[in-house]
Design goal:
Length: 290
């Protein structure tokens, strides 16, 4: 037996006083799929007219690597205790062949256009099934489009969209890349209110892009967003400096939720279809109540 694996097993067994299952994989099949799949816009390059958008891609997670390792150790201990208890009681025990890297992982793509924002997320969460000590895998796959017309939400697994999606993409304002140099759409910064992000004066560099740190008015524990600077247009949503954008490329909360973009592109041409996920084949759109 590999020495490192033996030591890991021994330490877990000592912690719980029973034989803990070995970890035979570093990640699950679904995690590999989520982390390796291409961004949604890459499959739509030839569909429909093109619009300008700012794009960021990141993995949303809870806490840093140290806290994740602590949570994973707790999960493995719980699995070992479950297996011991079930065997003592003559109940079934499922051997776990694939262990996740994290209890929760969400891959997110954000597209900020002049008049709306599209967010695509693909995630998975793992919990212990006490009946057989297996890990239950809860997958989520969704798209959300926010604009002044409302919030369109699409569950891409159940193929269901809410009634706000009924307008389709015909209202998406087109901004050709030839126009972004003049920074259209910029106007004086919004009047400050309790719900307006407040710039802290700090700047950071994320994925090669400078961003301005501002308070997150929706986080009571003083979380922050970092808004990408530059680009040819601000985009839909708040911005904190005159030459900034509404694209958030880093977010940190006091509760331990963090995301940091690993890919950022400003002034990118994308298919307008990225802003109408309800148009995908098989999607059912709810009817608005009259």
């Amino acid at each position: 037996m590999n020495g490192a694996i033996w030591l890991l097993r021994a330490s877990l067994c000592a912690a719980v006083g029973i034989n803990a299952p070995l970890i035979s994989h570093a990640e699950t099949s679904l995690e590999r799929q989520i982390f390796s799949e291409p961004s949604p816009h890459k499959g739509l390059r030839s569909e429909g007219r093109a619009v300008a958008a700012h794009w960021a891609r990141y993995v949303e997670q809870v806490g840093n690597e140290a806290s994740n390792q602590k949570r994973m150790t707790q999960l493995r201990r719980a699995v070992a205790e479950c297996a011991h208890s079930n065997r003592e009681s003559g109940l079934p025990v499922v051997e776990i062949n694939q262990w996740p890297i994290r209890l929760n992982s969400v891959r997110v793509d954000v597209y900020v256009a002049v008049d709306r924002v599209a967010t695509y997320s693909h995630g998975v969460a793992y919990v212990l099934n006490p009946q057989n000590c297996a890990l239950l895998e809860h997958e989520s796959l969704a798209a959300t489009v926010r604009s002044l017309q409302g919030v369109c939400k699409v569950d891409l697994l159940s193929k269901a969209a809410n009634s706000s999606c009924a307008n389709g993409n015909q209202r998406v304002r087109r901004l050709p890349l030839s126009a972004v140099a003049s920074r259209p759409g910029f106007s004086p910064l919004a009047v400050q209110s309790p719900f307006t992000p407040r710039v802290t004066g700090e700047r950071r560099t994320v994925a090669g892009h400078t961003c301005d740190v501002a308070t997150n008015p929706l986080d009571p524990n003083q979380g922050t967003h970092c808004y990408a600077r530059g680009g040819g247009f601000p985009g839909h949503g708040p911005r904190v400096v005159a030459d900034g954008t509404a694209l958030v490329i880093e977010s940190i909360s006091a509760e331990g939720f963090v995301f940091r973009a690993d890919e950022v592109v400003l002034d990118m041409a994308v298919s307008v279809s990225i802003f109408s996920p309800e148009s995908s084949a098989g999607i059912r759109v709810e009817r608005a109540e009259e």
